[in-house]
Here is the input.
Amino acid sequence: MVPPPFKYPRPAGRPTARLLAGIALAICGSAALAQDFVYVVRPGDNPWNITQRYLKNIDYWPRIQDYNQILDAQAIQPGTVLRMPVAWMRGERTRAHVVDVRGEVEHQLGEHVAPLASGMQVEPGAVIRSGEDSSLTLEFPDGSRSLVGANTELTLREIRRLKASGAQQLDVELRRGHIENTVRPVSRGGGRYRIHTPAAVAAVRGTDFRATAEGDGLRAETLKGEVALQNRRGTTRLPAGTGSYVTPGKAPEASSRLLPAPQLGSLPARIDRVPFRVAIEPVAGAVRYRTQIAADAGFTALDSDRTAAEPAVLGKDGLADGNYRLRVRAIDGRGLEGLDGEREIVIDARPEPPFPSAPGEFATEEAVRFEWAHSPEATAYHFQLAADPDFERILLTRDDLQAAQLTLEDELPAGDYWWRVGLTTAAEGRGPYSDIQRFRRPPPGPAAEPPEVDGDVLQLRWRATDGAERYEVQFARSADFATPEHTLETTAAELAMPRPEGGTWHVRIRSQEAGGPPGPWSKPQQIEVPHSHWRALLILLPLLLAL
Here is the structure.
């Protein structure tokens, strides 16, 4: 059935309405047109079928007529351009798709609160909250995505698709936290993406941008395309590579250039410990640095999101072994986050190395003993000892140790040494080395010069040891010093003591530096103490007199 000719009663005062519409168009310019759906009238079109297809109801046709300054609705010719505000057009509610969730994220719809999981659908009107060290990626029907950071709360105000063009309309209320958006360019009329905060609205039609709500303020950074920051006080446009800050009651600040991407060339491609911290070149003007790590190049979900005050790349504890994409950005004094520096990394931190326990800061025993925590899963331990912290001068490498210890029988000269240990398991293979351990081998005790016996006094002298605060001297009848008979201390490189009994004695000396333990004993020296004949005569004299 063909609809009857369209007759809409026109109330008085309509010219005034047309005049106002024209004024609104002149004032708003391109900003107003950006929210319009553009339709070219085709043969057979009339107000009735145009309304049926595109407008919410027939009451909106007089507004369209005034908006486009059409005097006679029956005289619309094919080829006529009609602009339709998207708020007047038919649409259907759609939902957001949860691509990935890390950590604890919940959504609330009405009184119902439930955790979010990958694959779920989220209805318009839902409130989403992410916890500490958590993230969420939402995908909308047109393919646009939003990465929701930790400690963020937002409401999906509207997710709507226009029936006329299929264009998406999305309104998000960001109450607190951080959101990173990749918005598909609008190829059909009527598309929009807006983020509402108490300070301003961020409006885009196709771009990559970030938004952070802290307190009542809003920070926005544009990476691709353009963002408009709008409030009652004014509008600021943010082209690619710029950002701005807005506070309630004030116009958005003028756009400013974002800090350049940090240089990551010095970052190692393989990371063998988690958590990790690796220094990078500082960026001029930066006060902080943010590191994000994800398993995919699109950063669908964040496996780690850390901020450092110094120029460093951070990775959290618990990152699993595997290939990752890493991006780092510098943050300026206003909190605006700069451009991303990106690269691939490999985390290979398992099996985790054992905890080293001995030696400590000093190794004073003649045979140095290395010890570490035993792992029940270990099939072997690998060990390295070096004369430098970079392990360019490796002194010993062992890959076949079965016990959680190693005793170095060969004499180790005095000096500083570095060592590390790792383990191999049947399930995970060979793991990385532990943190490098340093110890010092003090110089051995000095050798004594031949003793001097003067009457009832034995005098010992030796060469002074650099840095020695005191010396310890031991005398024993046996070379193994199992039962030392005399142990004496002195601060000088000499010792005067009562003459011991005559015969063979063994002497050893060790030094001690200030604040350190005693060093190794010197090699035992054998000395001969002459027997005192006068002492024997004094013992025998009473017997001789009695004869």
Remarks:
- The domain at 270-347 is CATH 2.60.40 (Immunoglobulin-like).
- The chain has a mean pLDDT of 88.
